[in-house]
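Per your request, structure below.
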């Protein structure tokens, strides 16, 4: 998987044009990361009324309110990985 170069405002709906892409949540302090299906992220945001498919991919990181399992900090980033 390769990180796609996108601007900060690129919405989650962009993933729909890249079949098999994943949204990666990564820690800015250590090497921990995990990737998720974009449609699951959208469904989760909608369920919590935090966003929808127009939510920026980069903004997903700001909605994470748990510390990194690797280093216990909260320095999240999020990006789109393409196959
Ligand atoms: Zn970490």
């Amino acid at each position: 998987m390769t990180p796609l170069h996108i601007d900060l405002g690129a919405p989650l709906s962009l993933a729909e044009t890249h079949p098999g892409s994943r949204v990666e949540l990564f820690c800015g302090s250590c090497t921990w990361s995990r990737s998720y299906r974009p449609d699951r992220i959208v469904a989760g945001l909608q369920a919590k009324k935090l966003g929808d498919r127009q939510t920026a991919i980069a903004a997903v990181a700001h909605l994470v309110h748990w510390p990194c399992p690797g280093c216990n900090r909260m320095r999240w980033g999020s990006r789109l990985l393409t196959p």
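The chain has a mean pLDDT of 96.

Regards,
D.
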